[in-house]
Amino acid sequence: MSACETIEIVTPKKVLLNGLWFGPSFAKASKGKPSKPKKVIIWIHGLGSSAFSKLAIVEKLKDKNTAVITFNNRGHDKVSRIAFTDEKRSANQTLGGSAHEVFEDCVDDIQGAINFLKKAGIKNIYLAGHSTGCQKSIYWASRKGARGLPASRTRQAGVKGIILLAPISDYSAEMHLKGKNVIARAAAAARALLARKKPRALLPESLWPEPIDAQRFISLYTPDSAEEMFTYAQPKKIPRLLQSVKLPIFALLADEDEFADRPAVEIAEWFERNTDANLETLIVPRATHGFRGKELQVSDAIKTWLSER
Questions:
Q1: Positive or negative, the Cα torsion across 52, 140, 293, 231?
Q2: How far apart are the C-alpha atoms of 153 and 250, rounded to whole Å?
Q3: Cβ contact 30:69 at 8 Å
Q4: pLDDT, the chain, mean
Q5: Three-class secondary structure of residue 10 per DSSP
């Protein structure tokens, strides 16, 4: 494993996020010295993962002109504590992780990483989301377009494009793996907790074996949530949120994705029909959701795409 530097990101809402910097030195970049990278990729991990996820791909993306940062967003691991710059606020033990994170907070997390790079003088920034990190990347771009910066001009925020690795709908994945009845029972329990104003209460283990609170379940596994933006399992639903994003997108799909409810070629075709952005898709043969064993092929494809930007 190659050397990296530790970094600390402070989001606009004053949340502290720990991360790693791979590639041309961050210390030199922050001081504006000649070895500052020309491009930096922000790696956004998937559901319950962490800054240490997919490092076999991350390490292969860096070169003398390109750096990659990975960081723990508020959804890292199953249950985690959210730290703030205000120690008194941190002492209140606000919980995150895949069980408790609030999906919409991803905008603050990603913007924190972008601001961190802009402060270091980086002008060419790319988002690379894996799995649920794909939804977070697209959501950031759509929200920034809606809040005073037209989506077609999001490039001016420093972000030049978005890389999606295994952009699979969590809702369709669980419908495929667990079935409609299991999802319906758990969703009913989650809505009951919300009605009782207990959005952070965990669902009973008998309904859902992994720890997840009511609001997180509704966000991940119901068809009308903001997070359900890759709507290929709902033929009549128009994916307006995805269509609002105008940044160039490179979507890499795993040919044997264990979470996909249909062939990768059909998902790729859905993206091509429903994306207004400059889109390129690639199906990685014999790859599973994590792209294990295909890291070199994936990194080479991403490098080629970046070279054309």
A1: positive
A2: 18
A3: no
A4: 92
A5: strand
Nearest to 67 by CA among 308, 240, 306: 306
**Distance between alpha carbon 101 and the CA centroid of its chain, in Å?**
13
Q: What is the mean pLDDT of residues 85-94?
A: 73
CA–CA dist 58, 282 (Å, integer) = 18
Give the strand pairing for 159-165 and 249-254: parallel
Domain 5-168+230-307 top-level CATH class:
alpha beta
- Total count of residues recorded for the chain: 309
**Span(s) in the chain for CATH 3.40.50.1820:** 5-168+230-307
Instruction: Report how far apart, in Å, the C-alpha atoms of 266 and of each of 132, 165, 229 are.
Output: 19, 16, 16
> pLDDT tens digits for 34-78?
678 999 999 999 999 999 999 999 999 999 999 999 999 999 999
Residues 6 or more apart in contact with residue 221 via CB below 8 angstroms: 170, 171, 174, 183, 186, 187
> What does the buried/exposed string (b/e) look like for 164-178 if buried means 16 or more CB atoms within 10 Å of the residue's CB?
bbbbbbbbbbbbbee
Strand partners, 91: none
Q: Are 104 and 226 in contact (CB under 8 A)?
A: yes
pLDDT at 32 over 90: no
Q: Which residue, chain included where needed, has tokens 């076999």?
A: 56
